[in-house]
Amino acid sequence: MKDLSLDEFCDRLASADPTPGGGTAAGVTGAVAAALVAMVARTTIGKKKFADRQAAMEAIRDEADGLRRDLLGQAEADARAFDAVLAASRMPKGTSDEEVRRGVAITEQ
Length: 109
Prior knowledge:
The chain is mostly helical. The chain has helices at about 5-15, 20-45, 55-90, 95-109. The mean pLDDT is about 95.
C-alpha cells in the first residue's frame, strides 16, 4: 500500500476488492494525524516565542514520527493479514479433513 499514490490508494479503497479495508484505512488515517502533529511540532521548534517548549516539541516530533511509521506498518500488516484469512477461507471444505485444514489455516492467520 505504501507505494501507491494517494489517488491510487483511494481508488483501491473504493473498489469492490476486500483490501485495503477499514483496518488499513484506519492505520493510514492515524498516520496522517501523526504527520500533522509532527508538522505542528516542527513549526514550533526554533521559534523564540516557544523557547521554553523546545525539548517538549522535539519529543513530540520524534514520538509522532515513530507513530506515523508504526501506523503505516500496521496498515500494511492489516491488508496482508486479511488477504491471508480470505485465502484460507476459500480453501476446500468438502471433506472433514479439508474442513480441519481450512479451520487451522484460518486460525493461524
